[in-house]
Amino acid sequence: MSAAAFEVEVFFDGECPLCMREIRMLRRLDRGRGRVRFTDIAAPSFDPSELGLSLEVLMDRIHGRLPDGSLVEGVEVFRRLYAAVGLGPIAALTRLPGISGALDLAYVAFAKNRLRLTGRCRDDACAVPAR
């Protein structure tokens, strides 16, 4: 597989149960074709410096990288992922007026509360673990 064979690289939190459910579904749909590159930002070996972003920024919301090196974030990452695994019609629906704005707002609310919603806060504190 060449370096540009993928359509999108997703940077995901491998310690997030809800995130992992989505990643497992995407891996199944990709069927080993390599259209999606999966990078776990919670892995001890992950170094965010190559992206020019901090781990905290990457943990705040989902990020993706396109073959040309450009970064996308938020709902746009999911659109790219779904299109890459053959769910292009669903991705297209998310661009419709009204739906697009609602999804963006819903994702921002989810991302802001993701650690709490997935039971990963301790003593009312939700913070990215230091490494």
Describe this structure in words.
- The protein has 131 residues and is of the alpha+beta class.
- The protein has a single domain (8-117), classed as Glutaredoxin (3-Layer(aba) Sandwich).
- The protein is 42% helix and 12% strand.
- It has five helices and four strands; from the N terminus they run E-H-E-H-E-E-H-H-H.
- It has helices spanning 17-30, 55-60, 75-84, 88-93, 99-117, and strands at 8-12, 36-40, 63-65, 71-73.
- Strands 2-1-3-4 form a four-stranded mixed sheet, with helices on one face.
- Helix 1 (17-30) links the parallel strand 1 and strand 2 (36-40).
- The protein is globular.
- The mean pLDDT is 90.
CATH class: Alpha Beta
Distance between the termini: 32 Å
N-to-C order of helices and strands: EHEHEEHHH
Biggest sheet features:
4 strands, mixed
Number of strands: 4
Tally of DSSP helical segments: 5
Counted up, domains total 1
Main β-sheet, spatial strand arrangement = 2-1-3-4
Shape: globular
Query: What proportion strand?
Result: 5-15%
Classify the helix fraction into a percent range: 40-55%
Give the radius of gyration.
15 Å
CATH architecture level-2 label:
3-Layer(aba) Sandwich
Q: Roughly what is the average pLDDT, rounded to an integer?
A: 90
CATH third-level topology: Glutaredoxin
Parts with pLDDT < 50 across at least 5 consecutive residues = none
Classify the secondary structure makeup into a structural class. alpha+beta
